[in-house]
Design a protein that fits this description.
By secondary structure, this protein is α/β, with parallel strands linked by helices. It contains 14 helices and 13 strands. It folds into two domains: 233 residues, Type I PLP-dependent aspartate aminotransferase-like (Major domain) (Aspartate Aminotransferase, domain 2); 85 residues, Aspartate Aminotransferase, domain 1 (Alpha-Beta Complex). The protein is globular. The protein binds pyridoxal-5'-phosphate. This is Threonine aldolase.
């Protein structure tokens, strides 16, 4: 089976397993796990922020960020198809009493400065007030769109004009960085915090990082505990994360594989795929997504339904160029 449902399906390699086995550990809730501390320092440096916090999942990282930046009752501006709004179980409302104001970011999911100004709500006796702008890079549901430094700068600058901070959901930030050939810190020049996943294309078994200023991370540390994310000898799971940080350049292979896959699938009758910017290929099928997924699974390829007729294929560490060629052949057979 060639599993292209998600870049989260990768399994840790021998080096990661060895790193976990031999990791120095301590109680991370007391900040005493040397491996976690090293990971947090390296992660902060990798994104050009002052400090970072190891969190079990990207979802928790985003939810901590929202809770730490905004006050109960605030609005949060986000893209209509963003993960934080659609795929986190309504956590903004459930966990932090925040109201999302979704903005349509068009085909690429880019929030413009005009959209920020238009969506901003001034706090009055009648209105909640906007507490945070959340951006997503790469944009998952738009097909792994790599949003440029200029686009992020402009949206965040508009938010700052209203004195509101900007959080970047960078679950796949390094995919954007590699695709755009822009250092990750440059993508975050105007951002106040970022979350990125170690457990996606970078290949770690567990974990994400939340980064920002020292003061922000101090408060985030408390909110992590509140949400149940205070882990003890977490160095065991953080150690593979240190290995994962060395996998950034490798993401370019995933992008090449995604382009090959998109071209191969687009050439099949009944399918349409645009050239992907990173490792996510969205395919439109003339069947229902469910029927298509069932048909290709029978031939040995797995993908995810992303809309009534849209299916997502994700390339990752555990598939190589040969797997991609085989996957295209399998889909061809399923469609004939
Ligand atoms: C995967 C993902 C997350 C959440 O990460 P988990 O570790 O699965 O909770 C957040 N945002 C985006 C854009 C993602 O793709």
């Amino acid at each position: 089976m060639i599993d292209l449902r998600s870049d989260t399906v990768t399994r840790p390699d021998a080096a990661m397993r060895e790193a976990a086995r031999t990791a120095a550990v301590g109680d991370d809730v007391y900040d005493e796990d040397p491996t976690v501390n090293e990971l947090e320092a390296r992660a902060a440096e990798a994104v050009g922020m002052d400090a970072a916090l190891y969190v079990p999942t990207g979802t928790m990282g985003n939810q901590i960020a929202a809770r730490t930046h905004a006050d109960r009752g605030d609005e949060l501006l986000c893209e209509r198809d963003s993960h934080i709004y659609n795929w986190e179980v309504g956590g903004l409302a459930q966990l932090s009493g925040l109201q999302a104001r979704p903005i349509d970011g068009g085909a690429r999911g880019v929030i413009t400065p005009d959209a920020v100004h238009e969506g901003f709500v001034e706090r009055t006796d009648h209105r909640p007030g906007t507490g945070l702008l959340a951006l997503e890079n790469t944009h998952n549901q738009k097909g792994g769109v790599a949003i440029t430094a200029d686009e992020i700068d402009a949206a965040a600058a508009a938010a700052h004009e209203h004195d509101i901070p900007t959080h970047v959901d960078g679950a796949r930030l390094f995919n954007a960085s590699v695709a755009l050939d822009t250092p990750a810190p440059r993508l975050l020049d105007n951002a106040d915090s970022v979350m990125f996943c170690l457990s996606k294309g970078l290949g770690a078994p567990v974990g994400s990082m939340l980064a920002g200023s020292e003061a922000f991370i101090d408060r985030a540390h408390r909110n992590r505990k509140l949400l149940g994310g205070g882990m003890r000898q977490a160095g065991i799971v953080a150690a593979p994360g240190l290995e994962a940080l060395d996998n950034v350049d490798r993401l370019a292979e995933d992008h090449t594989n995604a382009r090959t896959l998109a071209a191969g699938l687009d050439a099949i009758d009944g399918l349409a795929a645009e050239t992907p910017e990173t490792n996510i290929v969205l395919v439109e099928t003339d069947r229902t997504a469910e029927a298509f997924i069932e048909a290709i699974a029978a031939e040995g390829v797995r993908a995810s339904a992303f809309g009534q007729h849209i299916v997502r294929f994700c390339t990752h560490w555990d598939v190589d160029g040969d797997d991609i060629e085989r996957a295209i052949e399998c889909v061809e057979r399923a469609m004939s």
